[in-house]
Amino acid sequence: MDAKFLEILVCPLCKGPLVYSKEKQELICKPDRLAYPIRDGIPVMLESDARELPAEEEVE
């Protein structure tokens, strides 16, 4: 994921910054505890496609 691209992407709900998880191919919003998938190199920034992070899952 291009670092400059990451700088302009924000969470669609809270407009906060996202953390890139290379291992899981997700963009993570820490405050909302949502992980947006990256499919074929394209971030899917839809709340309906986001995965809720369980309380026990560490956020990088």
- In one word, what is the shape? globular
Helix content: 10-25%
Radius of gyration: 10 Å
Secondary-structure element pattern, one letter each: HEEEEE
Show unreliable segments.
Answer: none
Describe the structure.
In the C-terminal section; belongs to the UPF0434 family. This is UPF0434 protein GCM10011289_00780. Pfam families: Trm112p. By secondary structure, the chain is mainly beta. The protein has one domain (3-52): N-terminal domain of TfIIb (Single Sheet). 10% of the residues lie in helices and 28% in strands. It is built from one helix and five strands. Strands 1, 2, 3, 4 and 5 form a five-stranded antiparallel β-sheet that branches. A hairpin with a 4-residue loop joins strand 2 (26-29) and strand 3. The longest helix is centred in the first third of the chain and has 6 residues, at 3-8. The two termini are 16 Å apart.
Main attributes of the structure:
60 residues; mainly beta; N-terminal domain of TfIIb; 5 strands; 10% helix
Please sum up the structure shown.
The chain has one domain: Single Sheet (N-terminal domain of TfIIb). 10% of the residues lie in helices and 28% in strands.
List the helices and strands and how they pair.
Elements: H1 3-8, E1 19-21, E2 26-29, E3 34-39, E4 42-43, E5 51-52
Antiparallel strand pairs: 1-2, 2-3, 3-4, 3-5
